[in-house]
């Protein structure tokens, strides 16, 4: 195996030349479980730990390794343990706001070429949630692909209705309907995969991510749980993020199901996911139009003439408000953190002097 088989393409080779780190090897982070890491190079996959410098210099969790990262490492104990010294720049990144009240980024994975956003055709199908996933994926500069799982649970007419709803919402990315039980099934997904490329699976618990992963791997390597009949929900099967190398050469990152989907400062992701509204906004009378009540607002006019649905408009406005609110709160948090850090340094300097 060569590094390029793990995704170390020309982009990363150029970064390696620019950074010039003699004495260090390049390895990819293949698993993260709390503070435990696995890294892989052309020879083997081994446990890894962080240097104290990297750990304490990190301003936030975004500065720490996540699955898919490339890192500068040194090997010890006869190459059975790696120490991560520094991370390569990320070509793409998948992140969200941390669940709950804390305002910070949660890193999910990095250096992904395409993200499979999975929604089942029955209970789980939800356009508004799909839009949130698209914002997260587009903000990370990752190609989105929609997978509609459990197509065997609905008729052809209902399946066509699902696809029609996606298209009417101006979601134009590739959409694949499949079943893990009948028909061509996972083979349709397998045909999308390219050797040397990295993909990830996103979706709620119970939509069939792990079952699909087992099909693509070719064996029941990962545990699945039975979903509840009343709502199609399942418990979290995947408990850690990990990168799996498939036999045909593609790489797949499985992620735990997400119940909360919010973004911090995701302006680019929102614009890309709601390109129809962005285009309409170009026709507004005022360049700083908020699309709330202004005279001459092309977005509001599109709602009145039926060109834009109220549901999609409300979803857009809600995401914009959330993103701006969390960005403001995050900026304030970072300001306070920096101020506290400066205070600590001043105290340490004073104590050392006296």
Tags for this model:
34% helix, 354 residues, 5-stranded mixed β-barrel
Ordered list of secondary-structure elements with their pairings:
Blueprint: H1 10-19, E1 25-33, E2 36-40, E3 45-50, H2 52-57, E4 70-76, E5 81-87, E6 93-97, E7 105-110, E8 114-120, H3 127-139, E9 143-149, H4 156-168, E10 175-177, H5 186-190, E11 198-202, H6 209-217, E12 241-245, E13 251-254, H7 267-273, H8 275-281, H9 298-304, H10 310-353
Parallel strand pairs: 3-5, 8-9, 8-11, 9-10, 11-13
Antiparallel strand pairs: 1-2, 1-4, 1-12, 2-3, 4-5, 6-7, 12-13
Order of helices and strands: HEEEHEEEEEHEHEHEHEEHHHH
Main sheet attributes: strand count, strand direction, barrel closure? 5 strands, mixed, barrel
**Protein structure class:** alpha/beta
Count the DSSP helices: 10
For the secondary structure, the number of strands is: 13
Mean pLDDT: 84
Give, in spatial order, the strands making up the sheet with the most strands. 1-2-3-5-4
Relative strand content: 15-25%
Query: Residue ranges: pLDDT <50 for 5 or more in a row?
Result: 228-236
N- to C-terminal separation? 57 Å
The dominant shape is globular
- The quaternary structure here is single chain
- What Rg, in angstroms, do the CA atoms define? 23 Å
- Helical residue percent? 25-40%
